[in-house]
Amino acid sequence: MLYEIVISGYIQETRFEEFTITKQPDFTTKLRGNLSDQSALYGILRSINDLGLELISVNCVEEKKS
Asked: Which of 14, 32, 51, 54 could form a disulfide with 8 if both were Cys (CB 3.0 to 4.6 A apart)?
């Protein structure tokens, strides 16, 4: 499934290599990428938490086509 995750602030592009990273003008960062399942999503969310980043939103944009 394709997800969009928005966090507060800017991050290094090498931090989450599996995502396309877009720095927004409002000092947020959008991560966009495919994740295989909810377990993978929870792993990314855990990494965001462990780094002390503020999570703004998580959205499933579309289901991954088989």
From this structure: 54
Work out the end-to-end distance of the chain between its first and last CA atoms, rounded to an integer number of angstroms.
10
User: What is the distance, to the nearest Å, from the Cα of residue 4 to the centroid of all Cα atoms in its chain?
Assistant: 6
Residue type, 60: C
Token readout for 50 is: 């462990």
Neighbours of 11 (CB within 10 A): 16
Q: Are 2 and 33 a contacting pair, CB within 8 Å? A: yes
Confidence (pTM): 0.87
Pairing between β-strand 20-23 and β-strand 28-34 as defined by DSSP bridges: antiparallel
